[in-house]
Amino acid sequence: MTPPPTRPRPCTDPHGGGRHVPYERIALATAICRERGVQMTELRRGILELLWARREPASAYQLMEALKRRDSRPVGPPTVYRALAFLMAQGLVSKIETLNAYLPCAHPERDHDCMFFICQGCRASVEFVDPRITTLLAEHAAVLGFVATSRTVEVEGRCARCAEAGAA
């Protein structure tokens, strides 16, 4: 007997009712780094905290400005980009190429491919977990003899709230 299909699950709520508490996510990220033998520096933690505090993806320059306001000292682009590269390499942050912006990964403890629905109106971004995407991408890559090193699916459109507001 075939098991029922796995249904996609939203990992984040685009309008602030998120299911994850930021300080819990930061503690989890710190534990993951410790288990992997890599260092969660103060800057890396600060960037992750800023990303979890936001309700939308942030560009590197928005993060630089937020760090400057918070810490009363400037942080240069190379420093922020290096920290973001580390956070992405650890699976703690995802980059939404369409927006050239970053957001925290809802489930860094799981190895999964990212699927994002991005609202063109309010810029909210919802991450979904659906194992069928991973399987489908792996199957297509195998047919092509392609070795994927990064897999992120981005879908642009309007969230329900923005679509309703546009229709009103």
What does this structure look like?
The protein contains six helices and six strands; from the N terminus they run βααααββββαβα. It has a four-stranded mixed β-sheet with strand order 1-5-4-6, with no helix packed on it. By secondary structure, the protein is an alpha+beta fold. Mean pLDDT is 84; it is low at 2-9 and 12-18. 44% of the residues lie in helices and 16% in strands. Strand 4 and strand 5 form a beta hairpin.
Shape designation: globular
Structural class: alpha+beta
Count of extended strands: 6
Share of residues in strands: 15-25%
Helical fraction equals 40-55%
List segments where confidence is low: pLDDT < 50 over at least 5 consecutive residues.
Answer: 2-9, 12-18
Question: How many helices does DSSP assign?
Answer: 6
